[in-house]
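Progress note, sequence design subtask.
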């Protein structure tokens, strides 16, 4: 039982990590996404959006795993 609780705590910490990453990407995107953005900035925005999507996908997997641990 202790091992399962440790696994839950690990997953919860990973979810929190992805939440922080996603907040950072959203903040970055909001700060640099301007109508007159340069091509380089637009590339950076696209990369940040891709990274944000990756974090969302990983977080969804972790939440699903946590739900199975709680079942």
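Output:
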């Amino acid at each position: 039982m202790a091992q399962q609780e440790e696994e839950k705590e690990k997953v919860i910490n990973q979810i929190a990590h992805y939440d922080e990453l996603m907040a950072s990407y959203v903040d970055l995107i909001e700060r640099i996404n301007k109508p007159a953005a340069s091509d380089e900035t637009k590339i950076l925005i696209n990369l940040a959006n891709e990274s944000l999507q990756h974090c969302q996908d990983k977080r969804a997997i972790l939440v699903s795993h946590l739900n199975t641990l709680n079942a």
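The CA atoms of residues 23 and 52 lie 9 Å apart. Work on this subtask will continue into the next period as scheduled.
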